[in-house]
């Protein structure tokens, strides 16, 4: 807890607001007897001028429209404008003069006809800008050994469209709210010719892009692309996201604590409905309500809410079976809080009480979980931690008699996945980087051992059949003098704690 306390106070700022009594009295009492702005009622004066200055809305929260959420210098919660600028600087630092990068975020995908899916910004675009609209282009051009220019092309503000779909940022607000050098409307008469010329003049006729296609824009740019070659820069974009800043770690902690508290509340909900015909989708809906009630915008991914043998399917997301008294519920879920994700798995008894056999498997998985978290240190890798997880799990399987001379199956049937993955703005973050990469301070990974036994596996002692357990935590790689920081500390995982919560004792 000491590490978590330090983490929460990394960037603590105490704001002291002053109160100018003289100016207050002066401004309140200025009026004249002939003023039409004041009326009297029982000796009290009231202003009849009800004109309010409407704050400018740009289609996403700003300090002006959402002062309860954002500080003056923040583009998104917890991340100031200067940090976004530093991210762009860091990306461009090692490239030659004239080098250009274009990142695209196309129109939102449609669910059916004219009904769109909820929009989620492209991760790399979000990381470099904080801009949260579709149909935009970020172009970065290296202009000197130490500097670059940033250009953001956005949708034009059109009153008729904004009446239906809400406010847009517009090119005129790009510099003020996002710290971008130049803003343009992405129209045929304005931004598209400028974007085309900038791409056309890129170094050696090469433009480096993210891997997000946008066919409609490509067609409009075609006259400028005759001598231009496109290359992907996805790996460079992801590399900058591997190591999190202090601000990002704090946002990850917020996301994990919201999800952790929601796991606790969901356990209590299931325990409180013991004996009733509860369905997996009801549990899923309750968890989603819990995280959104605490400020999360959405779930990190479709949750796994797997009762009984459904837990044997690693990414079971149908969530449509009735829970059965005496079985386990394996739940893999997380939330996205201001673009930062959590990814937690907990397994708990539907009736609130572990059987002896369930306890045997659970304690084995928990042991692997704790011992692998201890290995989350600089110089290790997900691959090296996984090797230890295999060794520990295999020993437990043999100790419990699950694998033996009479069972032709080895550990891979019961523990078929990796011990973890990178975590950040995406659930499976920075996918271009393999698990052999040496861990460094500021990286965040998951630790998620499991044992999954089908109820139809005749090679396993009968008491263990149908038991599937995974325990997953999110862990910050610390500096060399500190222990690993478990961000998911509020998600209960000790047997005694889970049983107490589900029996409503705590």
From TrEMBL:
<comment type="similarity">
    <text>Belongs to the peptidase M24B family.</text>
</comment>
<dbReference type="Pfam" id="PF05195">
    <property type="entry name" value="AMP_N"/>
</dbReference>
<protein>
    <recommendedName>
        <fullName>Aminopeptidase P N-terminal domain-containing protein</fullName>
    </recommendedName>
</protein>
<dbReference type="InterPro" id="IPR007865">
    <property type="entry name" value="Aminopep_P_N"/>
</dbReference>
<dbReference type="InterPro" id="IPR052433">
    <property type="entry name" value="X-Pro_dipept-like"/>
</dbReference>
<dbReference type="GO" id="GO:0030145">
    <property type="term" value="F:manganese ion binding"/>
</dbReference>
<keyword id="KW-0464">Manganese</keyword>
<dbReference type="InterPro" id="IPR036005">
    <property type="entry name" value="Creatinase/aminopeptidase-like"/>
</dbReference>
<feature type="domain" description="Aminopeptidase P N-terminal">
    <location>
        <begin position="79"/>
        <end position="216"/>
    </location>
</feature>
<dbReference type="Pfam" id="PF00557">
    <property type="entry name" value="Peptidase_M24"/>
</dbReference>
<keyword id="KW-0479">Metal-binding</keyword>
<dbReference type="InterPro" id="IPR000994">
    <property type="entry name" value="Pept_M24"/>
</dbReference>
<dbReference type="GO" id="GO:0005739">
    <property type="term" value="C:mitochondrion"/>
</dbReference>
<dbReference type="GO" id="GO:0006508">
    <property type="term" value="P:proteolysis"/>
</dbReference>
<dbReference type="InterPro" id="IPR029149">
    <property type="entry name" value="Creatin/AminoP/Spt16_N"/>
</dbReference>
<keyword id="KW-0378">Hydrolase</keyword>
<dbReference type="GO" id="GO:0070006">
    <property type="term" value="F:metalloaminopeptidase activity"/>
</dbReference>
């Amino acid at each position: 807890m000491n590490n978590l306390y330090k983490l929460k106070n990394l960037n603590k700022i105490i704001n002291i607001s002053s109160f100018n009594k003289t100016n207050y009295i002066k401004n309140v009492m200025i009026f004249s007897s002939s003023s039409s702005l004041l009326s009297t009622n029982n000796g009290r004066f009231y202003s009849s001028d009800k004109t309010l200055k409407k704050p400018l809305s740009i289609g996403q929260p700003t300090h002006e429209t959402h002062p309860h959420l954002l500080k003056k210098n923040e583009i998104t919660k917890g991340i100031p404008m200067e940090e976004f600028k530093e991210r762009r600087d860091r990306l461009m630092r090692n490239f030659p003069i004239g080098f250009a990068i274009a990142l695209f975020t196309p129109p939102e995908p449609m669910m059916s006809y004219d009904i769109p899916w909820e929009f989620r910004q492209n991760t790399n675009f979000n990381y470099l800008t904080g801009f949260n609209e579709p149909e935009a282009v970020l172009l970065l051009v290296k202009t000197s050994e130490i500097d670059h220019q940033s250009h953001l092309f956005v949708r034009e503000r059109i009153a008729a469209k904004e009446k239906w779909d809400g406010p847009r940022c517009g090119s005129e607000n790009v510099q003020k709210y996002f710290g971008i050098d130049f803003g343009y409307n992405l129209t045929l008469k304005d931004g598209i010719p400028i974007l085309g010329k900038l791409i056309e003049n890129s170094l050696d006729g090469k433009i480096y892009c993210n891997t997000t296609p946008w066919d409609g824009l490509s067609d409009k740019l075609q006259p400028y692309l005759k001598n231009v070659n496109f290359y992907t820069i996805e790996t460079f974009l992801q590399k900058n996201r591997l190591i999190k800043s202090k601000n990002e770690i704090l946002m990850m902690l917020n996301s994990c604590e919201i999800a952790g508290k929601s796991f606790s509340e969901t356990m209590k909900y299931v325990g409180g409905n013991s004996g009733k015909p509860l369905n997996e989708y009801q549990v899923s809906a309750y968890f989603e309500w819990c995280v959104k009630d605490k400020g999360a915008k959405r779930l990190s991914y479709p949750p796994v809410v797997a009762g009984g043998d459904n837990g044997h399917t690693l990414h079971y997301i149908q969530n449509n079976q009735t829970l059965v008294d005496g079985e386990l519920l394996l739940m893999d879920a997380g939330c996205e809080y201001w673009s930062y994700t959590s990814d937690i798995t907990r397994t708990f008894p539907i009736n609130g009480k572990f059987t002896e056999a369930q306890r045997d498997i659970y304690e084995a998985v928990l042991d692997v979980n704790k011992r692998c978290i201890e290995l989350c240190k600089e110089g290790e890798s997900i691959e090296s931690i996984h090797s230890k997880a295999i060794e520990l799990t295999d020993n437990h399987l043999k100790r419990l008699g699950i694998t033996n001379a009479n069972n032709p199956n080895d550990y891979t049937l019961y523990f078929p996945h990796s011990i973890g993955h990178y975590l950040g703005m995406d659930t499976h973050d920075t996918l271009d980087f393999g698990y052999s990469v040496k861990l460094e301070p500021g990286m965040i990974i998951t630790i998620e051992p499991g044992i999954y036994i089908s109820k139809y596996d005749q090679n396993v002692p009968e008491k263990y059949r149908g038991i599937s357990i995974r325990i997953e935590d999110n862990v910050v790689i610390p500096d060399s003098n500190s222990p690993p920081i478990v961000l998911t500390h509020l998600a209960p995982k000790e047997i005694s704690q889970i049983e107490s919560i589900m029996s409503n004792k705590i």
